Amino acid sequence: MNTQKVQKNPCDMKTDLNLLLECLKYQMDCPLSQKEALITIYSICQQNSEASEYFREIGGLMFINDLAKSSVHCIVKEAALFTLGIIIESNVYCQQTLCTSALFEDLILFLIKKDSGVNLKRMSVYVILVLVSNNKNGQIYVRDTGCISLLLQLFRTTLSTTEKNVSDENTDPCYQLWSSVCSTLCACVNNPQNEDNQNICCSVFPYAKEWLESCTEPGIVRPICSFLGLTVANNPYVQKYFVSIGGLDTLAKVLLELLRDSCLSLSSMKLAVVVTKTMDACIANNSAMGVVLAKYHTVSELLKLLSNETLSTEEKVSIILTIGHCTEVCEENQYELLQNNGLPLMIQVLTESQDEELIKTATFVLQNCKQMTEQLSLKLYDNSLTVKSAEELDVQVRKSCLQDYWKKAKEILHRINSFEKEHDEKGVQGEAFVDKSSVANSEVLKSHGVNPADPKKYTKRTQKDVCCPQLTSKLNNEVLAPSLTSAPQKNETGNTMDAASTRQTEQRNIPCSVTDLQTDSVPQSQSINGETAGGKNQSGLQAGDFFLPHLGQHLFSSEKTESVKSTSATSSSHKMADLRCSGCTAGLSLNSKTFTKMLQSCLHRCEQHRVILEAEERYRGELRKKAAANSTTSAAHQKTLLASVKKDRLHKEIPTFRSKKDSFQSK
Prior knowledge:
Number of strands: 0
Region (Disordered): 479-539
Helix content: over 70%
Organism: Leucopsar rothschildi (Bali myna)
Mean pLDDT: 74
Distance between the termini: 157 Å
Protein name: TERB1 protein
Number of helices: 38
């Protein structure tokens, strides 16, 4: 009997649907009969996919769709739309059949007509809801037709924040319409997730924030939290926007207010869990935003909420997951978790629970705590190694600056060395033209008992001559300097000495010219009173001796001898030398210590040495600027050190010069 009844039911269902469809067609003038027939149809098709599919096959689905658009009776429109929603919700094929842009446009007309009642609008919103639920195409149509913009407008205007009355939410049609709009918006952005619709829906976040700030009633907080949670889910852009307008702060405040009442009201505690889920959705993809919740001590409040024994396993999972996201990267929340005994509580949940999801979430929090302790130990170790005084840090900064200047100096020195090598090559080529001069110099040295082939004797003789440059030359028994009776001759001799000092290296390597050999001997008229002239010029020679410590003795001695021999050279040869660049004629004497002074005194610098001199001056200018920036204490200390060094050097040099003077006078 039972089997026969089951087999009979499908036949009876099909018969009933055929009769009801005929009734709708032949009762067009009787809206009440049509309404009754529609109510019977949706009662049969509700949660019955087979009946809904059969009704679609016999054409009943499209007939009701046309009836909703063409009927002039409001009650028939409302019943037809509701029946369409039930059938679409029960069968996916019916959803695909009616999911067209034309139907969305018809529903928009129902929503914008002024004569449309609240119930008709609510039925239209319900049809939109079932069309977009779990349907990507429906989500696209609702956006392309502009239907989602109309839904957002209804969200803003249907319920006023100043005239709200949610105490009778089950009977208030405006609240029911607003609640349906919230549910439809949730379906537009979720399952599947639609980022384009999420980006559009975030435009009403300020209104949702205003609602939460003004009301904590479950009828308001729950729909808004559901809408916010699904709109920000897995969308970092929308999450950042919600946090930027203060939405996360508002949720934290609402949670604090609800938890204050949770000890007295079970509904407040359940609503606090809903707010917790929404907060978790806001920071799930960007845990760094959890720092906003630190100032409200949200972690400690969540731990208190977790200790409630009336919570279900699903609610505990939501709370622990939120704690995990709050403590993932935020040190303040991590410290708060430790301070409020969060670790023992997580361990207790991990050991006592049998639910797999709950164990996973508790493990997630414990993993965050492990990473936190490792990072803390590393920071303490780094701090112990890097803690230094302010003076040491200042020294490091100065050293880094000096290293930069040293690099520049090395670059300039490298360029100078390259130029010196070029001049050395030129000097080697010039030796071919002075072979005769070299032979003549050798003969002169041999005539005075000096063998040029014996470097020891030659060097010793040269050093002996340098010890007292005021005396007459022991090589040729002539006065080193010409007569000082006339001022022009004195000036000429001084210029000759300066020119000779700038060419000390070249003259040491290249023998003097034939013209110099011809003028080596000083006229007897100048040497008769040589002793008297030497005594008169004693002070001048002693003044010149103060430069001896700054020059090499070997270079200076040979140069001094050669310069004295060439004091009577013709003025024409000096003029020709002055017209050439000192850097080009100096040869090996042009080094990093002497080239600046030598080139500055030269009036005919070549283009190559002029560029080098300008680079040197710019570099020295940078050093002077850096030195001026140093503290007054460092400058004073350096000045004191330099003064002491100069003083010591002067004390060492004065006895030497006095001994020279005494030996000269004794002779």
